[in-house]
Every structure is written in C-alpha cells, then in structure tokens.
Amino acid sequence: MSSIQESSTSYLFGGNAPYVEELYEAYLDNPGSVPDNWRNYFDQLQHTPAVDGQESTRDQAHAPVIESFAQRARANAFLPRAAESDLSVAGKQVHVQSIIAAYRYLGARWADLDPLQRQERPAIPELEPSFYGLTEADMDKVYSATNTYFTTAEHMTLREIVKALRDTYCRSIGVEFMHVSDPVIKRWIQQRLESTQATPSLSADQKKHVLDRLTAAEGLERYLHTKYVGQKRFSLEGGESFIPSIDELIQHAGECGIQEVVLGMAHRGRLNVLVNTLGKMPKDLFAEFEGKYNDGGLAAGDVKYHKGFSSDISTRGGPVHVSLAFNPSHLEIVNPVVEGSARARQERRGMEGGKQVLPVLVHGDAAFIGQGVVMETLNLAQTRGYGTGGTVHLVINNQIGFTTSDPRDTRSTLYCTDVVKMIEAPVLHVNGDDPEAVVFATRLALDFRVEFQKDIVVDIVCFRKLGHNEQDTPALTQPLMYKRIGQHPGTRKLYADKLAVQGVIGADEGDEYVKRFRAAMDEGRHTVDPVLTDYKNKYAVDWSPFLGRKWTDAGDTAMPQAELKRLGERITTVPEGFKVHPIVEKVLADRRAMARGEMNLDWGMGEHLAFASLVASGYPVRLTGQDSGRGTFTHRHAVLHDQKRERWDSGVYVPLQNVSDAQAPFRVIDSLLSEEAVMGFEYGYSTAEPNSLVIWEGQFGDFANGAQVVIDQFISSGEAKWGRQSGLVLMLPHGYEGQGPEHSSGRVERFLQLCADTNMQVVQPTTAAQIFHLLRRQMIRQFRKPLVIFTPKSLLRNKDAGSPLSDLSKGSFQTLIPEVEEGIDPAKVKRVLLCSGKVYYDVVASRKDRGANDVAVLRVEQLYPFPHKVLTAEFKKYPNATEVVWVQDEPQNQGSWFYVQHHLYENMSAGQKLAYAGRPASASPAVGYYSKHMEQLKALLDQAFGRLKGVVLTK
After folding, report:
1. Which CATH number fits domain 817-954: 3.40.50.11610, 3.30.70.2190, 2.60.40.1190, 3.40.109.10?
2. pLDDT at residue 406, rounded to an integer
3. Where in the chain is the domain with CATH 3.40.50.12470?
4. Which phi and psi (to 5°) does residue 907 adopt?
5. What pLDDT was estimated at residue 107?
6. What is the rounded CA–CA span in Å between residue 907 and residue 875?
7. For the chain: N or C, fewer Cβ within 10 A?
8. Neighbours of 422 (CB within 10 A)
9. Per-residue buried b or exposed e for 826-852, using 16+ beta carbons within 10 Å of the residue's own CB
10. How do residues 192-225 score in pLDDT, each as one tens digit?
11. Number of alpha carbons in the 13 Å side-chain half-sphere of residue 857
12. pLDDT value at position 130?
C-alpha cells in the first residue's frame, strides 16, 4: 500500500485534505510542478465526469473540485497505489507539500505573538516533519519548491524549506488566510509573505521614524499620567505600536492614491491618535483635562475621549484627509457609522470613489468578538447597497479585554478575530513588541485592500499597562499577568536598544528622542509634522448653509399641478415589453388616474410624487429597509419586476430613476436583516451628505428596538454632544389594528422622551398630502434635523386618508390639522378632542354615529416640536369649550399622553379640564386577541365622548 493511502489518520486526510488543495492549485498554475502520480490524478479530472456528472474542464469551478477532494479524503480513496519505486521520491514529495500546507494553515499557532510570553507554544504535530515519517536523514535532501515563493530556484532542501516556513509563518507575524475560498487571494498572500519571509525591510531613516512614533505614543501617555494624575484617558501604554501602524497606514494610503480616510475607534489610544496622528494641539487637549475647553456653545458637549477630529495630513503620496468619527461609550457601534460616512464620500467622487476613500476601524479584542454590531457590520461588506470596497481593521489586542476578564469568559473562539472568517477576511496577527513587523503587516493589509477591495484585519497583540482606566488596580484580578507587565521595559525601550545594537542610532540617542518630545509637550506644540492647514479638498461638503439656523416650519413644498402630472406620468410608465404583475398593473393604472386628478392620491402615490419631485430638483434620495422596494404592506412598488425574467437577469425597472434626463439619483435598497448596523450606516451616510434625503424604514415600527443604541447615542444626541447634524429620516409603521403586541407600536413614548433642545422632529402624518409635504420639507428647509415618522398601516389604503392632487400644489405640511367637518359650530363646542395618528378616523366615525356635534376633533401631526402657536389659535375658536381630552390608541403608560399633557395644559384656558381617553396601562404594547382589541377600542371611544373619568387636571 502506498504511503499516501496509509496516512488516513493524519492531518492530511480526514475532513479537509488541505495538501490536496495546495497541490491542485499548484497543478493549475503549472502541471509539471507536482509529482507524477498526482499530476496523473488531476489530469483525469479533465476527462472524467465530475461530481455533478458533467465532464470537467481546466476552467471548471474550483469549489466543487475541492469538495470532491474532501469527500474522497473522508473515504480514504485518493490515488491508486504508487509504484514501489516512486515511494521514496514521490511519496516524500507529497509529504513535503503537506508540511507546506500545514504551515500555511496552522503556522500562526506557533507564531511568537505575545509580548509577555505567558503562553506556551501548543503541541501541533502537523508542523513537525516527523509527523509525516520524515527523519533527520531527509532534512538535507532536495525537494521541489515550485509552488512556494521562498526562492526562484525550483528545488530546496527540506531543512531550508522548514526554516523558510517557520521564518515566514511562526515569528512575529502569524497569518490566517487559508479559510479564504478564492485561490487567487491565497496565492497573492503567499507570494507577499513567502517572498520576504515576512521580514520587514526598512531603511535607517524609516526605522528612526518608527522610533519617533513610538516615543510620541509613550511620551504623551507618561506626560498625561504625570500631569493629570488619576484622570481617565484610556491609556495606550502597552500598545504603543498602534501609533506607527496608523501612521504607516495613512502614509501608504497616500501612495496608493487614497485621498480620504474615515477612521472609527473606541476609547483606548484615542487621545494619542488625536495628538500624535491627527495633529490636535496638545495645549487644547490639556485645556480639556483642566476643564477649560469650550466646544462652541454645544447644548451638552462630551468627554474628551469621545470626540472626533479631522485634519489634512501630508503623506508620501500627497495630501490625505483623515476624519475621526465621534464615538460614544458603546464601543463598536461606531463601525456602521464609519461605513455609511465612507460610502457617502465615495459616491460623491463617482466611479473612483471606492479607490479614493478608505474606511478604517480600530477595535478592542473583547468588543470585537463580543458585540453583535461587529457581525452585522461585517455582513454589510460585500453587499451592493452598503459595500465600501473593503475596510482595514486594526485590533488593539490587550489579550484580556477589560482587566477583570479572562479570555475563557469573553469568547468561545481561539482568536478574538475569528468573527471575520464569516466574510473570509484574512487576519495578520502581529507581536506589538515588534514595531517593524506591525508596520510590515499594516502595509501588506492596505495593499490587500487596494488589490481586492475586501476587508482585512491586523491584530496587534499587546497588553494594557494601566488597566481599563487609570483608576483601576488590575493586579486585584490579574496578579501574575500584571507582575509581568510591571517587569516589561516598554516597547519603545526595546526598540531603541535594538536600533542602538544595529548602529542605526547612538547608544544615548533614544533618550534624546524622549527629551525632544517632552519639550514639545511642555510647549504645547504639534507632535505631527506636517499637518496641512491650507489644503482645500474639492469634494468636501459645505455645511455652512445649515449651521446656526433657527427652527422654522417654513418651506415652500407645493408643486405646480402641471409638473405633478408630468411626474405622475413618468413614474407610472414602464418600458415597452416589460410585463408587470397584474396587481402592480392595477396600482399603476390607479396612480395614472391620481396624477390626472381623477382619483384622490393614496399614501404610496404621495410618497412617490415627493421622491420624484426631489430627484427632479437635484436632491438624491436613498431609501433602505428590509422590504423597502415593494413596501412591507405592498403599498410602494418602487421597484417593478418583469414577470418574464428573474431579478438576477436585470428584470427590474425603477420608475423613480427615470423621471428626467438630468435628475439626481434615486436608490431603494432591500437591506439585510439588520436594524442596528443598517440604521447606523444610514446615520453615518446622512452626516456626510446633507443634500440627500436618507431614509431608514423599519418593516414595523418596533424593529427600531434593535437599533436603540443608534437612536440614543447618535440620532437624538449627536448634535447636542458633538455639533454633528443629520437629516436622517426614520419611517416606523405604527398603528393598532388588532394584530397582536409585537408590531403595533413604534414606541412613540421612547422617542418623545428623547426630545429636547429642538434635536429632532417626531411626526405622525395621516394623509397622502401630509407625507408629500413632509418629505419635501425635510430637504427644502435650510437646516438638518433627524425626522422620525410614525407611518400608518391601514391608512395606506384608507380612502379617507387620501388627498386630492390640489393639496400637493398648494399649502405645506400642517403640524396640526384643525376641525374639518362643516357641521361643527365652534360656538357650540363644549369638548375638544385631540389625537394623533390613525385613531383620528375612529374618533370622527364614532362622533358621526353618536351625533356629537358639540365635540371638535383636532389632529396633532407633529408631536415635537410641539405646535403651540397653532394650537393656541385653534383653542381660541372654541370659547365655550370647558373640556380638553387627549385620545390615543396606545396604553396609558405608552404613546404620547405623559409627554403631551403638559403641552396641552400650557395652552388651555383657566377653568378648563384636561382628561385622558385611551387604553389602560399595560406591560405589553397591545393585546393579542382581536376581540379584546375591539372591546378596548369601543371603551376608549366611549370614554372620549362620555363623562370624564380617571385623573382630571383643572387649570
């Protein structure tokens, strides 16, 4: 039996057979590079039926062939017996190939990655020649090396091959890349690593620059630690090599033609990046530590290690604009925000945008593997609506997460970076005590991103010298680790000593670097040279038209009827030969009638005309959500599908992309099943693109629950904390239809609780004309505030919620709609009912049934900012009304009641009484039984028109 067949229990066989894949890839490149018996086997693949019964060709898909290898490996049925004369040469050559494959797969496990040297090297027999029956006698024999990149020669001794493998994969850099399915990518990484044996080649000046950056990284931390004792700063000490890494990333980005970097990172090392990378003046940072810094009149402001910054940095390839995103304490939540901002900047630049704008995300080890938004954001990477051409991820790996943690408690994976394998991103693990290796890995990572437009990770394995923050005593929970940390001389000292031994610097020159940096700190001078102060980026957005604006409801949102009819014709026309579904055909026919003024407009048509008018006027529209093309309730139909073709065959037509020859882009995206990442992405996009209408739509309003961090930390408070404006629109379907608790409520009360400082708009429109004017108002007004719209469900098709075309050609969005029934005499009104949303239609229907003509009904369409002036004018119309009742569908402890009562009280006259009519307080958003839903609806309507009950406030 051949040695190949005898090895069924080895690493080579079983479920993966990696060496066969390596051999096959080498065979595809050069059939003569593999042993004869394997070449004969692979040749058979060209002429025998493949797995699916189809004859194979040289160009057949790679993955099915590899799967067939795995199946044959499990069956221990790879090759016919090799001739006995072939065993000594061909058999051992196969084993040599297996060793090479093993190091590519598993070499990272033996890499010298830990600066603290706390972990013993694991036993991995597959990395030892003896595992394959190779002995010392085989070490100096010559074998083929044509499928490696160690040398240009075709042969090497086994000793040379093993040494090259260990030098490449087992020193300061450990690489994981064999999980990538694309053989082109694997060969590219092999070539880059093996041709250099993962050894940096830096000139003396480059090494001095690395030392300078290490000195700056360490120097800032020690200066702050001495001058501001005990203040939190989330020190970078122990991870100083991150500063040379980010420096090299930006410098090399310029060489690669990248003109903008959008950077997101949490707290650790952030102050260091601000000063030593982005060029923030040290004196400004010191003022923040001393509590003297003024943020220019922000309503709230934020702590120093949350703040963003931007600067233009001179690089080896030209100016690069770097924007550090503002980041709250929710760590990885900044990830999708950065991706959205990068996508907006890329689209602004057109076809080359993906090459010119680079997103960079900096992670902590525990948060990277622990927080779900990381996975959600990674899942955006290669999608059409959210891809950014690849992100470079840098991990500051403390090996411990928070200083009380143990990796056994913080993850179920070997590495904190294993989550990226879901998108087949390569990972470069690198020892933080080898700054040259860190620079090498960073440069390679950027080259990979430029070459393949995909994500890649540099995992800088380091430690945290001072604990999670400077008030911690980490030795309480990690005594042995922090004993070693206390003995560690510091990366800067180690590197300075190394350069002195190499003769790159003098024996005392390392200390001179320290003194020079200290002098710069004392004088508050820049520590980065040069930061450009007069560079003008032609792609920068001018936010000045939107700044310093006072709140106003003004905005000419009406459109001439002739233009509305023209737009209506364009958005209801499909190309010749395009077959739409009969249901959609009926929708389009009705919309044509609406555009001609023959029918009232429904909600979907109001939306469509708003979008069409905006793109025709030069405002791009971006609408995303999990079912936004069709609409969750099939009301939108923005994307039409040819019934004779699949979508994959481009069988779609988007009328809103064809309203005029010079229109702005309209894009509607059916998003992946994520709320947090997608909403964060759209927020980031909106902060970089004020001239686009950016909308995130939940399938149901309660889907926003999954993105509450984005709402709390960015949308509602970003302007108050950071002066960061956004015009993002949230569309949240909301309405009590008797369909159970989960999707009835968009949680109006949560948004209203967040309202202050005119930070956002919360509205609940009830007609097609209202949604038309509201969406147009969002862009036409010269300020940008987030807009939360509680959109209806049943009202999408309720004829009473329709609007004549004339309502779009006059007027504007009404923050409060007054009584519209002609039979109501204001002088006879004794009670005024106020409500918001769909319940209005239930109330007016009940009033009609009861003949209660002494009751007026007002609709509050904008809940925040509350329309006090309009309400004052309406109350004056009813001088004899003694009772004011707020009516809502939601339970009493939810909805608008607790928010709105003080606003109503403020507008009431002396002696008037205020009461509530609605469902009783409930732990659930709604009941699950339809019969009980109807009982509650009847009860709240009886309460609205009957005697005042419950708590009654008298002014």
Report:
1. 3.40.50.11610
2. 72
3. 561-807
4. -90, -10
5. 97
6. 8
7. N
8. 12
9. eeebebbbbbbbbbbbbbbebbeeeeb
10. 999 999 999 999 999 999 999 999 999 998 988 8
11. 25
12. 93
CA dist 496 and 502 (Å) reads: 10
Rounded Cα gap, residues 259 and 30, in angstroms: 40
Q: What is residue 819's predicted lDDT score, i.e. its pLDDT?
A: 94
Q: What is the pLDDT of residue 328?
A: 86
Query: DSSP readout, 441-457?
Result: HHHHHHHHHHHH---EE
Q: What string of DSSP letters covers 498-531? A: HHHHHTSS-TTHHHHHHHHHHHHHHHT--SSS-E
Do residues 875 and 833 make contact, with C-beta atoms less than 8 angstroms apart?
no
User: What's the N-to-C CA distance of the chain in angstroms?
Assistant: 100
**In which element (H, E) is residue 397 found?**
strand 392-397
Q: 170: closest CA among 103, 122, 118, 100?
A: 103
Q: Which residues pair with 320 in a beta bridge?
A: 313
Name the residue among 817, 897, 826 with its Cα closest to residue 858: 817
| Start-end of CATH 3.40.50.970 domains in the chain | 204-293+301-532
| Single-letter code of the amino acid located at 458 | V
Give the whole-angstrom CA distance, residue 861 versus residue 316.
56
Task: State the Cα angle at 776 between 770 and 782, rounded to 5°.
Answer: 125
Q: Which helix (H) or strand (E) holds 884?
A: strand 883-891
What tokens appear for 692 in the block?
């686009």
Q: What homologous superfamily is domain 204-293+301-532 in, according to CATH?
A: Thiamin diphosphate (ThDP)-binding fold, Pyr/PP domains (3.40.50.970)
- The DSSP code for 120 is P
Confidence (pLDDT) at 1: 32
What single letter denotes the amino acid at residue 462?
C
Given CATH 3.40.50.12470, say whether it is the number of domain 561-807: yes
Positions in the chain whose pLDDT score sits under 70 = 1-23, 32-38, 45-88, 230, 290, 293-306, 403-405, 468-470, 553-554, 647-649
Q: Please state the φ and ψ torsions of residue 638, each to the nearest 5 degrees.
A: -80, -25
